[in-house]
Amino acid sequence: MFSLPTFIFYCFTSTITPGPNNLMSMSWGMRVGFFKALPFNLGVITGFFAVMLLCCIGCAALNSLIPEIMGLMKILGTLYLVWLAWKILKAVYSLKPFEIDKKKAFISGFCLQFVNFKIMVYGIVSMQTFILPHFTDPWILVGFSFFLAAMGSGCNLIWSAFGSAFAHLFSKYTRPVNAVLALSLLFCAGSLWI
């Protein structure tokens, strides 16, 4: 029997906790402010939905291939998280306004989703454990994919707002804040192998 409260609790705890999307959204919010970070976050939202839809299709059609695909995604995800950690560690924050390339920000947020192992696991576990055992209608599955992406994207926006709200504090302590964010991403990378 499908348990909506358990499913929602799983979705919330999976998406509000630190991961590549939340940490990068916070970093963007710190660097450029909440509204200027929206192109990045819109890329995250769009990519998140695409990945959730792919998880749905993949789980429904390719159950036997998932372990093989996951190994490659773990390697790519680890390399990308280490690279992101390096970028954040070296980032410089300025409270002076500056322009961003909205298209590049969107593409960056979108592409992050396809190597973000955390959301892939979130999508696969959601589909395999909560959704596919109880639902088969394609439109309902698309609706669940949208719901999963909306939960994650909402949490990304919360983290971006948090970064923006505390930008003044973070700018005073750039090195320690960058170190904590970078170490958090490295922890995410390491946790892929545990």
Automatic annotation (TrEMBL):
Name the record gives this protein: Cysteine transporter
Species this protein is from: Turicimonas muris
Annotated transmembrane regions: 40-66, 72-93, 105-127, 139-161, 173-193
Gene Ontology biological process terms from the UniProt entry: cysteine export across plasma membrane
Residues making up the signal peptide according to the UniProt record: none
Membrane topology: Multi-pass membrane protein
GO cellular component, one term: plasma membrane
Compartments (UniProt record): Cell membrane
Annotated InterPro entries: LeuE-type (IPR001123)
Main location per the UniProt record: membrane
Keywords, sorted A to Z: Cell membrane, Membrane, Transmembrane, Transmembrane helix
Lineage: Bacteria, Pseudomonadati, Pseudomonadota, Betaproteobacteria, Burkholderiales
Single GO molecular function: amino acid transmembrane transporter activity
